[in-house]
Amino acid sequence: MNNELNQIKVLVCGSTQGIGLAVAQQLASDGFTICLTARNEQKLQAALATLSSSEGQNHTYFISDFTHPEGLKNAVEAHIQKNGQMHVLVNNTGGPKSGPIVDADPQEFLAAFNQHLICNHILMQALLPGMKTKGYGRIVNIISTSVKQPLPNLGVSNTIRGAVANWSKTLANELGGFGITVNNVLPGATNTQRLTEIASVKANKTGESVQEILAEMGQESPMKRIAEPQEVAAAVAFLVSPKASYINGINLPVDGGRTKSL
Hints:
262 residues; alpha/beta; Rossmann fold; 2 domains; 8 helices; 7 strands; 47% helix; globular
């Protein structure tokens, strides 16, 4: 894009694999300065080594565990104090385990609520001063098409993703006047470890192979295949760019047309 983007710092969550890593790589290639965060420092260091620094960026990382919101708060605040404010937040966290909602333990909802909505909120509050100071702010939440059409056998995830979507829309209304946009990207079936885990659970119940189930998932889309993480990352890259300055408060499915509603 242009070398001025290296002055815009982007925090990408869950950025050592799958969609999170693809987003970090795409945004680094576009010229943004990236901060990675995840639980495993070795994987963070490996991911950091894959990021382009062609625009002179100094990419960083910090360790975080989204199952401990207070620890996340301390970690992000310490990183900002040491490395300066950040201006773009890409919320991306692995989803709850699959299963019917009637079988879910109430504690599963509480754990997922903390891991997703509460941690998203903590990060937003930590980054908001930097966005306002910079006069440039983007928040993109990578959630799920389930906010438009609940998915079978993902009861806890459907519930919590819906909460995050409404948090996001409320936030978009409150922050739009500061030139800060808040949007959701809704991946469909995407070639990630998370999808393989879901397919494995189904395979154990049906006797089918994981590959057969993944192929069936692909057939549910008019595109007749599942997505690659880079295809989701491309949508995120547009929403965080200056070109998306008047797109605010939307849910953007990246699912090849699988979702039945508009």
